[in-house]
Design goal:
Blueprint: H1 2-8, E1 11-14, H2 16-19, H3 22-28, H4 33-43, E2 46-51, H5 59-69, E3 73-77, H6 80-96, H7 104-107, H8 109-122, H9 127-142, E4 146-151, H10 158-161, E5 165-166, E6 173-179, E7 182-190, H11 198-241, E8 247-249, E9 255-258, H12 260-266
Parallel strand pairs: 1-2, 2-3
Antiparallel strand pairs: 4-7, 5-6, 6-7, 8-9
């Protein structure tokens, strides 16, 4: 298999998502150039990019990385589908032989980035932030020629009740985003670079869409909570600074709270 052959040759495997961010990734390790070179020279003898085409021409970034680390480079054109099955085959073979799985940073860099993106997505504080993270996530995964989000809150819309719809072009799909009977919108992913694999991409996109829906739901709840807190703080500020007497009582007439205006008037 492709992955096993490259590993046997002592290659450090890269995908486009890692290559375009290589400076950022090495920076996260807090390596200077000398440390980075020592680390990679101990781990491998060359850099191999599995070019899936999702980021366009990655050769300049790969060349810069090779020069920075003083390592030879190689590019292997490969479809996303082939890369995924190669990685899955490697994992299954290692498990069957009882060998430890390969270090994630070495073989599954893009997958780790996706996990990071999902964590950031689920922590979004606002609907706008969540939608921005969703766009970033789907652009990284599928690199569509067109990505469009249409907001809708119509629960009677039959399209919103479906899991997935195919686009009219035949080169993509539409994902309805909804959670707990709340409908958010339709996410259209169209003009896929490898449209022949759209069914397999869709199988990956559907569970992602569910997580995206949860993220939007949580973000909207956080926004509502924040608005309520701000309204309460504003009201408390008004009550506290008022020169009029404002007194809070129970239904039985028991005084529970009062402001400075009430103290000045009644003592």
């Amino acid at each position: 298999m492709l992955v096993e052959r490259c590993v046997a040759q002592g290659a450090f495997l890269l995908t486009p998502g890692w290559v375009v961010r290589w400076r950022e990734q090495i920076g996260k390790w807090e390596f200077d150039q000398a440390t980075a070179r020592a680390f990679f020279h101990e781990s491998c003898n060359k850099l191999v990019l599995f070019d899936t085409g999702v980021y366009g021409d990655c050769e300049p970034q790969l060349s810069a990385m090779g020069a920075y680390l003083d390592l030879p480079i190689q590019t292997v054109p490969v479809g996303l589908d082939m890369l995924r099955f190669s990685l899955l085959n490697l994992v299954m073979e290692l498990r069957e032989k009882g060998k430890p799985l390969p270090p994630p940073d070495h073989f599954f860099s893009d997958q780790l980035m996706i996990i990071d993106l999902l964590n950031v997505l689920l922590a979004a504080e606002s609907r706008e932030e969540a939608l921005g993270r969703i766009e970033e996530l789907f652009m990284l995964f599928f690199a569509p020629g067109r990505l469009n989000y249409v907001e809708t809150d119509r629960p009677d819309d039959q399209e919103c009740e479906k899991t997935l719809l195919w686009t009219k072009s035949g080169r993509g799909f539409i994902l309805p985003l909804h959670f707990q009977k709340e409908h958010f919108g339709l996410l259209e992913i169209d003009d896929l670079s490898f449209a022949q694999y759209k069914e397999r991409y869709a199988a990956l996109a559907v569970p992602l869409a569910k997580m995206c829906s949860v993220a939007i739901f949580n973000a909207k709840n956080r926004e509502r909570h924040l608005r309520s807190e701000r309204a309460l703080q504003k009201m408390a500020s008004i009550v506290g600074s008022s020169k009029d007497a404002i007194i809070g009582k129970t239904l039985d007439g028991i005084v529970m709270s009062w402001n400075k205006g009430a103290e000045q008037i009644f003592g």
